[in-house]
Write a structure and sequence with these properties.
The protein is α/β, with parallel strands linked by helices. Helices cover about 40% and strands about 25% of the residues.
């Protein structure tokens, strides 16, 4: 088998990494021009048929995760809040029945401010959702219109208020370096967000991905690199003074509110992804594999019935593992314990010694016997740092 290569090349994995579950709900009201996720605009969502496909998907995946506990669940999309609270309840009941979901697992649901109201939030909470992640992006009506969002500033504020009232922890997604945005506009967005005392904030630089409307036709008046850097520097300083720890490239959290699913992802942990286009990374004693489900929702549902819903399965070769690991772990500002590399790859840290030495020489990382972390320079030039491990 292809996976045997890893067994001969590395030490093998004696204990698998922690496991989380990602559930992809692929529909949205309208495709945003900057979005490159597997999402599809649809008025009438076939909720029952899709939930049946998810159940079949996880049933077929059970042999790959048998006996392993699931530490967190993340509903991503698309817009998961388009699904009814009853539908989310059915999905979670299925997950609890079929898997070893930890009783106190963090369960996150992404939500669009244009698709939420108090009754739905209460229903999600009753179904077992412990955390919502709101795609706010901005509290400025003009900015929201320029990036094609379906909600306005008033809906964004209302959704943030509902989240704060309903859930013990929640996240607000914000974007910066938007078309026509200046530092003062970003400052107003951040101050509005902080007024809701969010336990977690995600702040993303607008990126023009190739296969998006913005990728094909960039919007006018984008801030230049210097202006975007000034925005990033200011928000990092401001959120720090507000008591939010900058723990990952784009993530800020109050103590005890870091996103467990994402932390596992960045630590090169395992995750089972179910749903149209979902990705998985699963470790076995002799190999580490990546999978991708069929992307189109209708084809995925039809394929799940026949057990033909997985579009790709690939074993990660030993030569790829250093880059795969560092691509995730070096996004963490605090870095990672050095033994984690061997535990989660089956290879000794010396497998990437050349990259480590080059990164140290360039001042991009610092390390000792216990920890390896990116320096401030390494965080600013993360892509350059990661290239050293290819």
């Amino acid at each position: 088998m292809e996976g045997k290569i890893l067994m001969r090349a590395g030490a093998g994995l004696t204990v698998p990494p922690p496991l989380t579950l990602y559930i992809h709900l692929p529909w949205c009201v309208k495709k945003c021009p900057y979005c490159d996720f597997n999402s599809h605009a649809l008025d009438n969502i076939p909720e029952d048929a899709y939930i049946a496909a998810l159940a079949r998907d996880i049933e077929l995946a059970l042999p790959e995760i048998w006996g392993r506990k699931i530490h967190a669940v993340f509903f991503g999309g698309g817009t998961p809040s388009l699904f009814s609270p009853e539908g989310i309840d059915r999905i979670l009941a299925m997950v609890r029945t079929l898997t070893q979901l930890e009783p106190l697992a963090e369960i996150t649901l992404e939500a669009n401010p244009g698709t939420v109201e108090a009754g739905r939030f209460r229903g999600y909470h009753a179904a077992g959702i412990t955390r919502v992640s709101l795609g706010i992006q901005s509290f400025d009506d003009d900015m929201l219109q320029r990036i094609g969002r379906i909600h306005g500033a008033a809906e964004a504020k209302h959704a943030a208020e509902l989240a704060a009232k309903t859930f013990d922890t929640f996240n607000l997604d914000l974007m910066y370096a938007l078309p026509g945005q200046n530092l003062g506009m970003l400052q107003a967005d951040i101050e509005t967000a902080l007024a809701f005392a969010p336990p977690h904030l995600s702040c993303y630089h607008l990126t023009l991905e190739p296969n998006t409307a913005f990728g094909h036709s960039p919007p006018p008046r984008l801030p230049d690199d210097d202006a975007a850097a000034a925005m990033q520097e200011w928000l990092e300083e401001r959120l720090g003074t507000a008591g939010l720890e900058h723990y990952e490239t784009s993530a800020f959290a109050r103590p005890g509110h870091r996103c467990r699913h994402n932390l596992n992802y960045w630590s090169f942990g395992d995750y089972l992804g179910i749903g149209a286009g979902a990705h998985s990374k699963l470790s076995f004693h002799d190999r580490i594999v990546r999978q991708m489900r069929v992307k189109h929702p209708m084809q995925y549902m039809q394929g799940a019935e026949r057990g033909e819903h997985i579009a790709e399965t690939r074993t990660i070769s030993p030569s790829e593992l250093p880059f795969e690991f560092m691509m995730n772990a070096l996004r963490l500002n605090e870095g990672f314990p050095t033994p984690l590399f061997a535990r989660h790859t089956g290879l000794p840290l010396t497998a990437c010694l050349a990259g480590l030495q080059a990164a140290e020489a360039k001042g991009l990382i610092e390390r000792d016997l216990e920890t390896l972390r990116p320096t401030g320079k390494g965080r600013r030039f993360l892509n350059e740092l990661l290239m050293l491990f290819l």
